[in-house]
Amino acid sequence: KGVFLQQSKSMGDLLAKAMPIERILKAYSVPVSSLENYEKIYYQNAFKPKVQITFDNNSDTEIKNALISAYARVLTPSDEEKLYQIKNEVFTDGANGTTRIRVVVSASDCQGT
């Protein structure tokens, strides 16, 4: 059930066109097969560029893991050299029983610019 990179773009284009049509037909109670299986295959095989993801030393482990998980949906974390870099600075502030989390994200190319 794998998808070649060439097929991935055309599959994404077709899904983008078919999904609104599916919703319209379902709204009018027209029986149609679900596109869910095709969506899963597409997203499981979608191209995810490799990037270096770094965090400042003070980052909370739970916050760091949540951010890495979110990035992994669209990117492939890697330690390889000469990749785009995403640097994260995590700040937390607790007051009045509420914790505020602020993340400053800096993205740079492989030369660091």
TrEMBL record:
Record Pfam families: HP1454-like_C, HP1454-like_middle_dom
Superkingdom as given in the UniProt entry: Bacteria
Name the Gene3D superfamilies for this protein. Answer: 3.30.160.710, 6.10.140.1870
- What name does this protein carry? Uncharacterized protein
Matching InterPro entries, A to Z?
Answer: HP1454-like_C, HP1454-like_M
Q: Native species of this protein?
A: Helicobacter pylori (Campylobacter pylori)
> Can you give the residue ranges of the LPP20 lipofamily protein C-terminal domain?
48-113
Query: Where would I find the LPP20 lipofamily protein middle domain in this sequence?
Result: 1-41
